[in-house]
Amino acid sequence: MRTISTEKILEVRDLTISFNTYAGKLQAVRGVSFDLHKGETLAIVGESGSGKSVTNKALMGILPRTARIEKGQAFYKGRDLLSMTEKEWEKVRGSEIAMIFQDPLSSLNPVTRVGKQIAEIFILKHKLPRKEAKRRAIELMDAVGIPDPEKRYNQYPFQFSGGMRQRIVIAIALASDPEILICDEPTTALDVTIQAQILKIIDRLQKEKQLSVIFITHDLGVVAHMADRVAVMYAGKIVEYGTAEDIFYNPQHPYTWGLLSSMPDMETEEGEELYVIQGSPPNMLYPPKGDAFAERNPYALNIDFKEEPPMFKVSDTHYAATWLLHPKAPKIERPAALQRRIEKSLKRAKGV
């Protein structure tokens, strides 16, 4: 386990975001709070619609017009990002805080050579002359694993595979030398082999440049070996929050149990059915009373349907919002299959 810096580069407090829709107000993010430390990777994990991407679009100042930040603060180097004007955002967005999106084609100009798209960042942000900008762009293409970068500098996005296009997008994001890199499901559309290569590149560059990374994903397995801390989101709230070791080896929330149980592992046999969390997330136009996960939770208590659980402290680094952690709650063991997987993972980690 890496030692996490105590220096906080980002502090998000009680972030609440809604959308105005034809059917009414949709509550997308509900009181989200977390910190991001210098040089760490924070993974935000949850199903589609859990609020993870909306949270991070707010941190980039790119929410759609139908979105409304109802309350909350996001301090970056002492400045509240959520109160910035568009002119102030222009100095931060893409420079100090950069983002890699899920679909590289939507991020690249199809009629501009890829090398020029990278070089333009060095010209605009760093005021370098064109010759030097081209040299730096080629260096960066090489750093993200583009073969023969001098030749490919002059090619167009359609001449690259999906994995190679994503590397170009990473290069563009890093060209501005950001402090924070937000990765919004950057490997979802890629096959497993290419996915692993992209993750390795992001992890390596994060360590080399001491980047602070927020990695958004629906798959805990994607961040298993690169996250320092993990925030699990459900229905617009963080329901569990801790170090990677806390979440993978000592999960406390039944939703986290479900996510971990649905991951394939080294012992998963061909044709074996993986665990599936039954039911669907709630309609956030009409948030349910009590715990939003109660209807899908096989371990739900009566109170789950009446009152929302607070965030209980498990340890100094680990918190979970489940009534199962209340001192008066019945003692419920984790699912046996999940416990076996955790024990096997611990043995592998120790080299047993």
Structural description of this entry:
- 32% of the residues lie in helices and 23% in strands.
- The protein is of the alpha/beta class and 352 residues long.
- The two termini are 18 Å apart.
Observed structural traits:
352 residues; 23% strand; alpha/beta; four-stranded antiparallel beta sheet; 11 helices; globular; 12 strands
Structure, briefly:
With 352 residues, this protein is an alpha/beta fold.
Main beta-sheet strand count, sense and barrel state: 8 strands, mixed
| Beta-strand fraction estimate | 15-25%
Widest β-sheet, arrangement of strands:
6-7-8-3-9-10-12-11
SSE pattern, N- to C-terminal: EEEHEEHEHHHHHEHEEEHHEEH
Residue share in helix: 25-40%
Oligomer status: single chain
Question: Count of DSSP helices?
Answer: 11
The dominant shape is: globular
Query: How far is it from the N-terminal to the C-terminal residue, by CA?
Result: 18 Å
- Structural class of the secondary structure composition? alpha/beta
Uncertain parts? none
How many individual β-strands? Answer: 12
Indicate the radius of gyration in whole angstroms.
Answer: 21 Å
Average per-residue pLDDT, rounded, comes to: 91
Task: Show the helix and strand layout.
Blueprint: E1 8-21, E2 24-37, E3 41-45, H1 52-60, E4 67-76, E5 79-80, H2 86-92, E6 97-100, H3 104-107, H4 114-126, H5 130-143, H6 149-152, H7 162-175, E7 180-184, H8 192-209, E8 212-217, E9 229-234, E10 237-243, H9 244-249, H10 254-261, E11 312-315, E12 318-320, H11 336-349
Parallel strand pairs: 3-8, 3-9, 6-7, 7-8
Antiparallel strand pairs: 1-2, 1-4, 4-5, 9-10, 10-12, 11-12
Helix pairs in contact: 4-5, 4-7, 5-7, 7-8
